[in-house]
Design brief:
The protein has about 80 residues and is mainly β. It is built from no helices and six strands.
C-alpha cells in the first residue's frame, strides 16, 4: 500500500494547528495514520478515516494532499 503525505488543520486541546500526517487509500476510502508502532515483523497502525471528497492533490514538495476538512484526532486520555 502506498503512503502519501497530508497537510491539514487539526484541533488539539482546543487549539487549531497545521499538521502533517501520512495518508493511505483503501479503495475509495482514505485514512490518516495517527500512530504507528513496530511489533516483531508487523507494523501496527492507528488510522482515522477521513472524507476523501475533501482531499485536494497538490504539487508541494512536503505534501501530496491538502485536507480541506478539519481533523479531530483522538486523545489517548479519552479512551
Amino acid at each position: 500500500m502506498r503512503t502519501y503525505r497530508l497537510r491539514s488543520q487539526a484541533v488539539n486541546d482546543g487549539q487549531n494547528s497545521v499538521i502533517d500526517m501520512d495518508l493511505e487509500f483503501e479503495g475509495a476510502r482514505a485514512f490518516v495514520i495517527w500512530d504507528s508502532i513496530p511489533l516483531g515483523g508487523y507494523q501496527l497502525q492507528a488510522r482515522v478515516e477521513i472524507d476523501p471528497g475533501l482531499l485536494q492533490k497538490v504539487g508541494h514538495p512536503n505534501c501530496d494532499y491538502l485536507y480541506r476538512g478539519e481533523l479531530v484526532l483522538p486523545r489517548p486520555q479519552d479512551n
